[in-house]
Design goal:
Helix content is 79%, strand content 0%. With 134 residues, the protein is mainly alpha-helical. Helix 1 packs antiparallel against helix 3 and helix 4 crosses helix 5.
Length: 134
């Protein structure tokens, strides 16, 4: 299948954000591991890796707005709903288990990772259900 212009823009944006994420995360982790930052600078650097991750969500929203094929848009919406359901369910289960000291604390940035994994599961569900992933 030939990618639509919206899909090509989506792929290009995701690749750029992924490169930015890696380029930001590695030096920030290095600085924090060596205790080289503190105070307000530490907060700014601590937030920097989150910016491209938030950008992923913006890019997904832009893709929804840009995609002209209603069927492909429906597949992506279904995929996103599956990912959201998986993530919210996992976060709820984990939160209660954590509250009762049955599991260790999970850092909050794990939930977007679970959501992105859920997108993959949603794509597989679409492929099995409709013969095509978004």
């Amino acid at each position: 299948m030939i990618a639509s212009p919206a899909q090509r823009r989506y792929n290009r944006r995701i690749i750029i954000l992924s490169i930015v994420y890696a380029a930001v995360l590695m030096p920030v982790c290095w600085l924090f591991a060596r205790h080289l930052v503190s105070g307000p600078v530490a907060y700014v650097l601590g937030i920097l890796p989150a910016v491209p991750v938030c950008g992923f969500f913006v890019v997904i929203g832009l893709y929804f707005a840009d995609e002209r094929d209603e069927y492909v848009r429906m597949l992506m919406a279904r995929q996103s709903l599956i990912a959201t359901g998986i993530t919210m369910t996992a976060a709820t289960f984990w939160g209660f288990l954590e509250n009762f000291d049955l599991v260790p604390h999970a850092v909050a940035y794990v939930w977007p990772i679970v959501w992105f994994g859920g997108l993959g599961i949603g794509g597989c569900v679409n492929k099995l259900s409709y013969g095509r992933a978004a």
